[in-house]
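Dear colleagues,

As part of the handover before I leave the project, I'm documenting each prediction I ran so the next person doesn't have to rerun anything. This entry is a single chain, and its sequence is reproduced below.
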Amino acid sequence: MWKKFLPVLSVLLLTGCAGMFTRLTPLQQSRNASNLYPVEVAFNSQQQSLRWETIQPYVLVNGELYPMHQVQKVQNRWEGFVPVPPGVNSVDYRFKFGYKYNAVGSAPKSTSTVSPIYKLNIIDR
């Protein structure tokens, strides 16, 4: 019986915990003319096999992925923009990070991890 679970267990031990997201964006922002609202996240991982140079971060809003870019001179922080149409007062979003990790006996493998769902409230001023 253990022989069936051993390969799965070894993959879990090698990949470890995928990562921890820390939202750095306020819960609410004032409505602006561009309808684009900045969001920022810190991503950290204890996964030793993670290949940091392969990270591809996105903001996921209403099923659409919007690319993020790394904050200059700050390690493990990324920023991007969330579109919120005029008249809409809130939007749910989450962060998605795609990356590669080193796998034993094969080429690096691709995977991704997603954050919890966050809500951004837009306030008319």
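The radius of gyration is 18 Å. The first helix runs from residue 2 to 15.

All the best with the project,
I.
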